[in-house]
Amino acid sequence: MQRFGTAAIVMVVSIFVLWWIIWTIGAVQYRRFIDNWIEAHRALGYQVTYDNRDTEGFPHYITLHFGNFVLINPDGIRIHANDVSLAAFPWHWRNFNAKLKHGFELVIPFTNDKTLLISTDAIARNHTELEENGDWKFMDLELTDAKALWGQEPFFGARKFEIALERPDIAPQDHTQPGLTITGSADNLSLPPGLDAPFGPQAAKIETSLRVMGPVPDPRLKTSVTAWNTSGGVVEFDRFFLQWGSLIFSAKGTLGLDDD
């Protein structure tokens, strides 16, 4: 029994050490994967900066922890988080979960010199799935106590805000095929001044599921949306639900966009 106990301890320690070695090798590969992704996107005009980076998460996930992380794409869309953790299972680098603590901001500039700012001081969460070429195929964002500004003006606030975007495996060839699927919801949505009539300043819930048909236009550019619209582009709403004061509204259908 004593020899059996000693052998069992040796086996457990050996397994632990072996897994630590595998985890360490995986952590090196994960850092290399993220570094390669950053460098490839910098070459495409992205700006990616951070103050520090640590590796943690043993023995479960491999987690890269970044301080003061900033990503700006060539169109000026800016993501900033004070504290970011990117967690993935070993050798499943293209699927990862992000936890963004101590403040998150998403800034989207528009052509009329205004910006849309979506932010939270609480924890934000994200799940991303990448294609082999490094482009995103699926990503979602979950915010608690979210708020948005249109320029300097309040746009909305929400106790909970979720949005998920998914690209098809094959790019659409025409407007009979979806180019982007979007699902989203918001709870306890605070409406901006001027939009609070006639059912009050807060909507209890909004849920939507929609497909943008055909090659996806840039919603910030009127010329892009106009070209998409005139060539037959529509948005297919598979579900839209709104609970706003005494109003309960549910619908589905097809929406076209005009020049406004």
What would a concise description of this structure say?
Helix content is 20%, strand content 50%.
Explain what this protein looks like in three dimensions.
- The protein has 260 residues and is α+β, with helices and mostly antiparallel strands.
- The chain has one domain.
- 20% of the residues lie in helices and 50% in strands.
- Strands 1, 2, 3, 4, 5, 6, 7, 8, 9, 10, 11, 12 and 13 form a 13-stranded antiparallel β-sheet that branches.
- Strand 3 (62-72) and strand 4 form a beta hairpin.
- It is elongated, with a radius of gyration of 23 Å.
- The model has no long low-confidence stretch (mean pLDDT 89).
Tell me the structural class.
alpha+beta
Taking the sheet with the most strands, its summary is: 13 strands, antiparallel
CA radius of gyration: 23 Å
Please report the total strand number as a whole number. Answer: 13
Q: Write the H/E string, N to C.
A: HEEEEEEEEEEEHEE
- The level of helicity is 10-25%
Instruction: Report mean pLDDT, rounded to a whole number.
Output: 89
Net shape: elongated
Q: Which band does the percent of strand residues land in?
A: over 45%
What is the tally of helical segments? 2
Alpha-carbon distance between the two ends: 81 Å
Structural domain count: 1
Spans with pLDDT under 50 lasting ≥5 residues?
none
